[in-house]
Amino acid sequence: MANLEAKTKMSAMQLGLVVATTAIGAQIIIMPAELIKQTAQATWLSVLLGGFIFYGAAYLMIKLGKQYPEETMVEYMPRLWGRWGGSIVIWWFNLLYMLVFTLILCCFSRAITFIMFDRTPPAVVAMGILAASTYCALQDWGTILRVLQLLFFLAVPMLVGMWLLSLLNFQPENLLPLLPEDIAEVIAASLKSWDMYSGYEIILLLLPAVARGKISMEKAVGGAFGCMGLIFVSIMVIIVGVLTAASAKNAVYPAIMVIRAVELPGTFIERLENYLVIAWIPIVFDTLAVMLFIVAQVCMRHYHYADHRPWVMALAPLLYLGNELLSGFKTFEIMSKIATWLGLGFSLAVVPLTLILAWRRKRRWHERCG
User: Among the entry's GO cellular component annotations, what is one (predicted)?
Assistant: First the structure.
């Protein structure tokens, strides 16, 4: 029997796949209504612009990681920022991922209850997906990577295929006016689209495990962002084209509502949205498993443990408690905004400043040696 845990290295293409899988999670269903409220018909443009902005952030993360090719951010951040400053940056990253994890868990459990199991408490749904994600996160990276690849190629094409069926009800005139009147709103919404693209920060942990090959990491991650951008923009266009911007911004889950009115001629298939949600479940599972594994890895490295498994088991109940604390709508909204600002601050401020510090440190070292 093959040893699934033996794999410690991955290719640049696999890194891109991990980035895409982690990002295409719960927010693909939840975020559209929030963005459409802000930019209406121009939502597609704000999401497209957001893709370029956050690829820029991911590109800087790759450049930063290449300064220390054999180390993760847990090792080099304290050297660049000092002991306390490095710990703050490391825990900024960890708290961000823990908060995003609980937000996704809360959104997922509510959506599943609303659409499929209306008599099942969301806490039970959350407990189920958390148990599955925890079991996956307890494995070594080689096993997780294989599971992730398998589910990605099974679930994402099915999910996209289901959305394409809604083109049967597509009305192109709903997209007009195509270009926005207020470009400032589009730019603001593009920053808010971080919620959809978030997950690329794992580059800072996974870079040392990437084997150098013919395809550069920049191109592989760029391909991942191209794939995500195409899917996200297409979803926004379909939602507005089918529901109209006015209806979509008031819908609970517009990405699911677009499929409800689809009727396939000559078939007896009903409630197509259930099939869409079934395809969505493994994608959310992938996202949660990877995030839990990454947070546990950071804790393991930062506190010099030999294994990440004790941290997975310690974090799982804590994250479930966080999910329960987010049950109030107002609390959820506040924590969602905090997560967005933490993510933007990390990507657009901490990473560029850290890269500058790394360049300056390297230049001083060359001056001393030269």
Answer: membrane
